[in-house]
């Protein structure tokens, strides 16, 4: 059992802290946002994540998980301090380390015995060293401490599962003692421990996310070629994915990746490369392809409709992927303002991300948690998130509800033959177009 303090109760901090508590450690999660802490003390979660509330409630009840905004006390009492504060992207695409530096300063000022200070946030290479120097600068005596980089690989929507059963833990430590302490902490979650230097561990996180993002942009580029030569990208994915050296995951073509990690981390990696004098052209292209996917989807829609002005368009899905209410860098957040500015009437559906979207986009569109309500009388449906509600749509009912049967699908949800048989004009990504044959649809 270890005494762990986690600074920052965002996705990573809250989930990791809760899982450390579940494994029997004494965990204190702290945040400077008092409202967030007050909510957590009352059992209200700041994020939607399946299974999180149950695990938090259980561990609060049995006394292994605590919440506080008294950061100084939480630091003084801890043996291990996890820094899990945000590293937002600056306008230049660089990671902003303001919060990390603030926490390091507070740790330095409150260092009262040997502690292991761990970064969990995705931080640029060299941040561990920076934290070390900030702590040294602000601690009063020469109290020993160690720094560890222990990046997080959890996926939103699967966060608890990913944390309780990690595929691997990457531990980059400044001493063997610190490595052992953090390795022990991870024993309940995985036996695959990658021991590395601080810098290597920091880079592993960026390399992992950039590689996954590259897979997605690669298949999206292939999809764009498929559209031009009449091939089907889903079959290409299947055909290459069965090669175990390639693997079948992250080969789903679509409107591109979003979320809090891939867009931010690919840009940050580009900066890290630039700062050490290397032009990482591959990642530059990955980012460009991803941005292009959104544009192409809108172009397809515009071409099919003739004009956006005065058309009623259903947006199916606001979250960047299913099972989360996270809209950060979500395709919908880019696409809705464009369509609204060009005079379309928008009816957006999402089961859980409407509240967050309203905060950011206000009333540029009407919102509904009822998918059929948002489809009513529309000239086109645009699928941006592959929610189960979208997959489960009664397509006959959809056709009846729509003014004309046009679906532009950014997630390749439906089978082409089915759409053809039902008489839809169905434009997906990297697959042959399905055109409605009846006279009424000539304009589509
Ligand atoms: C990702 C990483 O998977 C995780 O390891 C890391 O810790 C944080 O970033 P997350 O952002 O939660 O996790 O989402 P993920 O499930 O990886 O999907 C990212 C984006 O890629 C989504 O927008 C998704 O729609 C898109 N995607 C994914 C594709 O477009 N095609 C695919 O084949 C897979």
UniProtKB/TrEMBL annotation:
Catalyzes the conversion of UDP-glucose into UDP-glucuronate, one of the precursors of teichuronic acid. One of its GO terms (molecular function) is NAD binding. It comes from Bacillus salipaludis. PANTHER family: UDP-GLUCOSE 6-DEHYDROGENASE TUAD. Coiled coil: none annotated. This is UDP-glucose 6-dehydrogenase. Keywords: NAD, Oxidoreductase. Its EC number is 1.1.1.22. The keyword Oxidoreductase applies. The active site is at residue 261. Pathway: Nucleotide-sugar biosynthesis; UDP-alpha-D-glucuronate biosynthesis; UDP-alpha-D-glucuronate from UDP-alpha-D-glucose: step 1/1. InterPro entries: 6-PGluconate_DH-like_C_sf (IPR008927), NAD(P)-bd_dom_sf (IPR036291), UDP-Glc/GDP-Man (IPR017476), UDP-Glc/GDP-Man_DH_C (IPR014027), UDP-Glc/GDP-Man_DH_C_sf (IPR036220), UDP-Glc/GDP-Man_DH_dimer (IPR014026), UDP-Glc/GDP-Man_DH_N (IPR001732), UDPglc_DH_bac (IPR028357). Residues 314-416 form the UDP-glucose/GDP-mannose dehydrogenase C-terminal domain. NAD(+) binds at residues 31, 36, 87, 122, 156, 264, 328. Substrate binds at residues 153-156, 205, 250-254, 258, 321. NCBIfam families: NDP-sugDHase, TeichurnBiosyTuaD. One of its GO terms (biological process) is UDP-glucuronate biosynthetic process. Transmembrane segments: none annotated.
């Amino acid at each position: 059992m270890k005494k762990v303090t986690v600074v920052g109760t965002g996705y990573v901090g809250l989930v990791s802290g809760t899982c450390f508590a579940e494994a029997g450690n004494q965990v204190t999660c702290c945040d400077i946002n008092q409202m967030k802490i007050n909510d957590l003390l009352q059992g209200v979660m700041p994020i939607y994540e399946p299974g999180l509330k149950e695990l938090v409630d259980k561990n609060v009840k049995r006394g292994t998980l605590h919440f506080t905004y008294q950061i100084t006390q939480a630091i003084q009492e801890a043996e291990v301090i996890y820094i899990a504060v945000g590293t937002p992207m600056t306008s230049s695409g660089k990671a902003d380390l303001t919060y990390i530096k603030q926490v390091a300063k507070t740790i330095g000022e409150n260092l009262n015995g040997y502690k292991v200070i761990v970064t969990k946030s995705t931080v640029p290479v060299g941040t561990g060293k920076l934290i070390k120097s900030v702590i040294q600068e602000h601690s009063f005596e020469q109290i020993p401490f160690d720094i560890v980089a222990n990046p997080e690989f959890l996926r939103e929507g699967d966060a608890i599962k990913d944390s309780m059963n990690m595929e691997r833990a990457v531990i980059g430590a400044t001493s063997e003692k610190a490595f052992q302490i953090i390795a022990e902490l991870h024993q309940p979650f995985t036996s695959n421990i990658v021991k590395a230097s601080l810098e290597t561990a920091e880079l592993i996180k960026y390399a992992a996310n950039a590689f996954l993002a590259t897979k997605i942009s690669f298949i999206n580029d292939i999809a764009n070629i498929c559209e031009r030569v009449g091939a089907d990208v889903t079959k290409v994915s299947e055909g290459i994915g069965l090669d175990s050296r390639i693997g079948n995951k992250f080969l789903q073509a679509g409107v591109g990746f979003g979320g809090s990690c891939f867009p931010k981390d690919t840009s940050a990696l580009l900066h890290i490369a630039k700062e050490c004098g290397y032009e990482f052209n591959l990642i530059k292209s990955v980012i460009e392809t991803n941005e292009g996917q959104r544009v192409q989807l809108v172009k397809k829609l515009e071409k099919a409709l003739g004009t956006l002005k005065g058309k009623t368009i259903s947006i199916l899905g606001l979250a960047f992927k299913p099972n989360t209410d996270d809209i950060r860098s979500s395709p919908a957040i880019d696409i809705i303002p464009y369509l609204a500015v060009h005079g379309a009437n928008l009816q957006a559906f999402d089961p859980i991300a409407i509240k967050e979207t309203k905060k950011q986009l206000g009333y540029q569109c009407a919102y509904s948690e009822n998918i059929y309500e948002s489809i009513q009388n529309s000239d086109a449906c645009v699928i941006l998130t592959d929610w189960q509600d979208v997959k489960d749509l009664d397509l006959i009912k959809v056709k009846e509800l729509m003014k004309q049967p046009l679906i532009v699908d950014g997630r390749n949800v439906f089978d082409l033959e089915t759409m053809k048989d039902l008489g839809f004009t169905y434009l997906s990504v990297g697959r042959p177009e399905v055109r409605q044959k009846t006279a009424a649809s000539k304009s589509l």
